[in-house]
Amino acid sequence: GRVWTTVSSLTEELKDRTVLIRGRAQAIRAVGKKMAFFTVREKGYTVQCVLTVAPDIASAQMVKYATAISKESFVDIEGVVTVPPEAIKGASQQVEVQVRKIHCVNRAAAILPINVEDAARSEVEIEKALEAGEQLVRVNQDTRLNYRILDLRTPANQAIYRVECQVANLFRQYLLNEDFIEINTPKLIAGSSEGGAAVFKLDYKKQPACLAQSPQLHKQMAICGDLGRVFIVGPVFRAEDSYTHRHLCEFTGLDIEMEIKEHYSEVMDVVDRLFVNMFDKLNERCKKELEAIGKQYPFTPLKYLRNTLRLTFEEGIQMLKEAGVEVDPLGDLNTESERTLGKLVLEKYGTEFYILHRYPLAVRPFYTMPCPDNALYSNSFDVFIRGEEIISGAQRVHIPELLEARATACGIDVKTISSYIDSFRYGAPPHGGIGVGLERVVMLFCGLDNIRKVSLFPRDPRRLEP
Ligand code: ATP
Ligand code: AMO
Predict the structure, then answer these.
(1) ipTM associated with this complex
(2) Fewest beta carbons less than 10 Å away: which of 131, 166, 195, 398?
(3) Among 237, 245, 389, 436, which is best to mutate for testing ligand 1, by the most ligand atoms less than 8 A from CB?
């Protein structure tokens, strides 16, 4: 077969070489009848191609053929790499391809609902272009999501899904090295696993059932079955009522459950090492991707410490109080106070990634272990990036009588979770774990403002399509 070159690898090193590329025709313009310029894009990388009419090189017929190709069509181009004297604007590669052969492999419709070039511009670029009187349509979020496959073609989106893949990959690799095993838990379950009402109900062969709100019950049961240290990467379903920038109805959960010897800090230790390693490796391995995301959506690199800061909930409340924010010392933090605390922590400790632990028991799920020294508090924690929650975790109640009492106190019908509670009657080790929202990690690591930007085909209270 012929040797293909990727657009991303077109550099000065290939000067004077004949290359063969396949990509999408992005911008095509004829200059008189003897010349045409067009940009070819492949996986978010672009190169300028030049077609010049000259004997033995290209005919006027070729220019006509090329300029008739619709935007976003797939083209094959054979040409010679040259280095122009001036920098090329509007292409990622700083070399040109002098076209010898061009072939349209498959045509895109002449009229597209999204212009990919416009969709790729940053807010600053849009403002500038509008000021310069350029005709341009700002692509809104709904249009992007309605025609997601076009929107996905922008360099930032090409990068986002590579980063997201790396987050899941780094989660997996780190844990496999630490003697965890990956398991799969049922997504069709009999009742709510978090004790909330936000469940999708369905009919399971005439039996009431629902889509799992989390792998909570089964990951703990895996521990009762002596699997020791487990993790899960899989879909989580929440029938969210509120339409926010950070809630989806279906997201990807990264879950951990592990035996603990003495203290729930053992779970926080795993969080600490796992995430510091993840952030380090993301910065190292995804340099290009993070740059591409930042070009469209500017952000500052995440500030995090070598040893993750741990504050108690009481310390957090105290910091808020000193800043003039009054919050219920035994209640939950609302979105705004979480944000404020994030800012205060950054000022005082210089980190945008930290753990808040020892939450009031009343605001945590029924399976959370109360603090042995004060039952108003619990052996639980949340983890934040830039003032927003990415993780919830805790030590669990492993005493069946206490578990039953806690479930009842939280208004749960214990009959609906009897097999789970019974699992603890045959001897269970002390254990704990966490649940991480994959999309939230990517969104907040990259300083993005909406979770829909990091979900390939998002499901939210208003969207079930595409
Ligand atoms: P978790 O399920 O672990 O709590 P979460 O990030 O989904 O994770 P929520 O319980 O949904 O958190 O909300 C956390 C806090 O954010 C709550 O205390 C609540 O007051 C606040 N909150 C939730 N939804 C909204 C919303 N739509 N607008 C403003 N605040 C909200
Ligand atoms: P929790 O309900 O806090 O905890 O969920 C864990 C993490 O999942 C993410 N998350 C969401 N992401 C997108 N859209 C949503 N609607 C949404 N809801 C939650 C957040 C959150 O921190 N069983 C426990 C975890 C545990 O204790 O192991 C649980 O589900 O990042």
Answers:
(1) 0.90
(2) 131
(3) 389
